[in-house]
Amino acid sequence: MQSLVQKYNVPGPRYTSYPTVPYWNKEGIALENWIKTFQHSFSESNQSEGISLYIHLPFCESLCTFCACHKHITKRHDVEDDYIDTVLKEWQLYLEVLLERPIIKEIHLGGGTPTFFSSANLKRLINGIFNFADKHPEHEFSFEGHPNNTTKEQLQELYNLGFTRVSFGVQDYDAAVQKAIHRIQPLENVINVTNWAREIGYTSVSHDLIFGLPFQSLEKVKNTIDITNNLKPDRIAFYSYAHVPWIKGVGQRGFNENDLPKENEKRTLYEQGKQWLEEAGYIEIGMDHFALATDSLFEATETKTLHRNFMGYTANKTQLMIGLGMSAISDSWYAFAQNAKTVKEYQKQVNDKVIPVFRGHELSKEDLIIRQHILNIMCHFKTSWKATELQFEGLQNCLKLLQEMAQDNLVIITENTLEVPHNARAYVRNVCMAFDMQLQRNKPSTKLFSMTI
């Protein structure tokens, strides 16, 4: 196992999209073209499956050194009102180009820290969205909560608005690790928010854990998983720490890099952690995710409806996802568009009545085919090119690149199919990289991605 880790531990994308953001068209996408692809996708999907909304709420009171999200650090809560006003104005800009009243199947509030916002402002945000939209009968709304500042009132208010899923960022329970990542978080707070959510009626409570953090050891990860098992969340995200200080700057340099577990040590943290989770009844769902058999994410794997987008894994597939807020990314299936990445610029453009897209990518025919293969691999650990419409010019070259992985028993290739066996799922990013024609044609000369293992 160690030799395989050393062999395949290379920088690579996490494939929340294809093409990945560094390989989007350098010239971007004209706003009028984005609107056309958006309208086309909306007309295809609104009545049949509804649409998704991702709303980025970027404010945090303090900086966590493990975080690679787009955030704005402030303790001033007077920023809430203006920001909610701007998000609702952006929603109005999209409503002006929609062809009919939208039906919303999925909402996810991400950050930043969504629970930075007061209950009243969260209510104002969601009600403002649904003044001009309808809820899909099978809607699923979720949000990310910080255990230190999520209140029972916030949980109740969001539940009243239709939210039934919540994800709490736990990361690790060890005091030395928490100090290094600047995330001091008492266990009591996690217990409280988990119990409150269940008392209120949330059908899925998720805890996010991270392996590969500074000062982590096998004993510390075991302790964190044992505590988590006692609380028995419905889902667990067991993420690999992505160390990308060349992108995020000082935020990820709050500790000495020698304090990080080395590659084989880090892999052991994952393999052993995965074993402990599975022994506790959690089933591996896609990359980094585990769920109990009673959770909708597991049910989606059984029915082959699991989907992956910029929000990660989801049990609901919608063709169109609109991203609202600073840095949010929208996906029309045919194109991607990302909003301005600072609060100031985002608010300026929206207040100027301009949809605040600052970069994007319109997918080619080849992009669409490869995107489907990568989605298949990431969600189902298998794909097929038997159908003519799933074949592309570089396919045979992709399969040649995978021959060494096949020899190492990390992938099974037949005449028309590819499958990643259960014991090789940790290498799924490497498999997707072989299909990534954008990456193969233009290998990066500088650091772009975190390590795959």
Explain this structure to me?
The protein has 453 residues and is an alpha/beta fold. It folds into 2 domains: 14-362, pyruvate-formate lyase- activating enzyme, CATH 3.80.30; 365-441, Orthogonal Bundle (Arc Repressor Mutant, subunit A). The protein is 38% helix and 21% strand. It contains 17 helices and 19 strands. The chain has helices spanning 2-8, 31-45, 79-95, 119-130, 152-160, 175-180, 187-200, 218-231, 245-248, 263-279, 296-302, 343-351, 365-380, 395-401, 403-407, 428-435, 437-441, and strands at 51-57, 59-60, 72-73, 103-111, 134-145, 163-171, 204-211, 235-240, 283-285, 289-291, 307-309, 312-314, 321-324, 329-331, 335-339, 357-362, 382-384, 412-413, 417-419. Strands 9-10-8-7-6-5-4-1-13 form a 9-stranded mixed sheet, with helices on both faces. Strands 14-15-16 form a 3-stranded antiparallel sheet, with helices on one face. The chain has a 3-stranded antiparallel sheet with strand order 17-19-18. A hairpin with a 2-residue loop joins β11 and β12. α8 packs parallel to α10 (263-279). The longest helix has 17 residues, at 79-95. The chain is globular, with a radius of gyration of 21 Å. The chain starts with a helix and ends in a 12-residue tail after the last helix.
Label this structure with key terms.
Arc Repressor Mutant, subunit A, pyruvate-formate lyase- activating enzyme, 2 domains, three-stranded antiparallel β-sheet, nine-stranded mixed β-sheet, alpha/beta, 453 residues, 17 helices
- Say how many strands there are: 19
Euclidean distance between termini CA atoms? 12 Å
The fourth-level CATH homologous superfamily of the largest domain is tm_1862 like domain
Uncertain residue segments = none
Q: What's the mean pLDDT score? A: 92
Could you say which overall geometry the principal axes of the C-alpha atoms support? globular
Can you give the helix content as a percent range?
Answer: 25-40%
| Number of domains as seen in the coordinates | 2
Write out the strand line-up for the largest beta sheet, numbering strands in chain order. Answer: 9-10-8-7-6-5-4-1-13
The computed structural class is: alpha/beta
Give me the CATH fold name of the largest domain.
pyruvate-formate lyase- activating enzyme
Please give the CATH architecture of the largest domain: Alpha-Beta Horseshoe
CATH class of the largest domain: Alpha Beta
| Rg over alpha carbons | 21 Å
In DSSP terms, counting alpha (H) and pi (I) runs of 4 or more, how many helices? 17
The major pleated sheet works out as: 9 strands, mixed
Work out the strand percent.
15-25%
